[in-house]
Every structure is written in structure tokens, then in C-alpha cells.
Amino acid sequence: MVEKEALKGTGLELDVGTAEYNVGEVFGRKLYQSAEQESFIASARAEGPETKLLRIAADDFRLIMASQGSHINGSEDIMNAELPSEFKNPVPFRLEDFQVIGLVGYGSFGKVSLVREQATKQIFALKEVSKRRVISTGQIEHIINEKRVMSIIDSPFCVKLFRFIFLFI
Ligand SMILES: Nc1ncnc2c1ncn2[C@@H]1O[C@H](COP(=O)(O)OP(=O)(O)OP(=O)(O)O)[C@@H](O)[C@H]1O
Fold first, then answer.
1. Is 127 annotated as contributing to ligand binding?
2. For 120, which of 44, 82, 93, 136 is 20 to 30 Å away at the CA?
3. What's the half-sphere exposure (Cβ side, CA atoms, 13 Å) at 145?
């Protein structure tokens, strides 16, 4: 149940209530989206021996969720967001344009290398994904979603997908 309570010395009336959240859920998003940010006070208690409560400053949250002019607030926004124009009309490139500097790691679908673009000298991580492995493990939808999210997201905290290429080998 939500009740109203006066906030001392401010003349503001606040909604007072409690809510329970499950693992991975974010509380405070309403504060972030709301224009009346000053009239929101929240305290949180994590219960259970394995529970972790992570706090993130509003400015950092804004950077993660909506950096560089985008207005992405949650997973629905990402799924509905327009793909960047370079993904609708991909700029062709060749693997030969990149010089491999070293191996970074292995994932479930292939390897990741550190590479340098010859023309610009820019450094990238090049991730190779085996389509055969994606299909045989039933991960087609997941990999398409991963590509979509990584191409739309634009945050200093997240890896961004700049380009992709399909090879038939
Ligand atoms: N952009 C990147 N920059 C630096 N290292 C990276 C980058 N992407 C991947 N790596 C490294 O390469 C490894 C393999 O990455 P990859 O994305 O293929 O798999 P994963 O995310 O670890 O697991 P999964 O394949 O199950 O999703 C990672 O564990 C990480 O060490």
C-alpha cells in the first residue's frame, strides 16, 4: 500500500511504500525517468546469505543507460530501437584490412583477437563466430540479439559492435 508523507522542511508530499524485488531487478529507474527527482528517497535492504545489493550513482546510471544522446532505458527500448544506419547498409570490409596483433581469448562460438586496422591504425577486438556452432547449439536467436544490443548500445562501460562480416568458409 502507498501512503503520502510530508518531507520535513521541503513542503513536498512523498509516496511512502515498500516493494520487493527479485535478483537482477533494478529499483530507482522511476526516479531516473521522473522529472521530480528531488522528491524521491529510497532505502534498500538485501536479504539472504547470498544476496548482493549493488548501488550505482545516478550519473553513472545515466551514462550506462542513455549515453551519448540515445534514450535507451531498458531492454524493451533496445529491442524496439532502430538499428544504426551502418547496420542497414553495412560498409564492406575484408579481413585482410586488419593485422592480427594477438589472441585475446576463446568463447563458446570461436576466438577473439586483438587487431589493428591497417589504414587507420585503430585497434579493435575481432570476434569470430562459427555459424555452424551457433546453429548446432540452438543459439541463433541469442546471437542475433547479442549483435543487435552490441550495435545499438553506446556506453563507455559496454563493448560496442562497430562492424560485422559474413564469411562462407
Ligand atoms: N571487446 C573485447 N575486448 C577485449 N577482450 C575481449 C573482447 N571480447 C571478448 N574478449 C575476450 O575474449 C573472450 C571470449 O569472448 P567471447 O565474447 O567470444 O565469449 P564469452 O563472452 O567469454 O562467452 P560466450 O561465448 O559464452 O558468450 C572473453 O572472455 C574475453 O576475455
1. yes
2. 82
3. 9
Ligand 1 centroid to Cα of residue 160, in Å, is 12
- The Cβ-side half-sphere exposure at 140, using a 13 Å CA radius, reads 4
Which grid coordinates belong to 30? 522511476
Q: Hey, how many other C-beta atoms are within 10 angstroms of the C-beta on 120?
A: 9
Would you say the ipTM is above 0.85?
A: yes
> Hey, which bits of 31-164 come out as E strands?
98-106, 111-117, 123-127
For the entire predicted model, the pTM comes to: 0.61
* Residue whose C-alpha is closest to residue 105's, from 122, 128, 123: 128
Q: What is the pLDDT of residue 71?
A: 55
CB atoms inside a 10 Å sphere around CB 147: 15
What pLDDT, on the 0 to 100 scale, is given for residue 32? 58
Q: Is 147 in the pocket of ligand 1 (CB under 6 A)?
A: no
**Intervals of the chain under pLDDT 50:** 1, 68
Residue 156: all three cell numbers together: 563507455
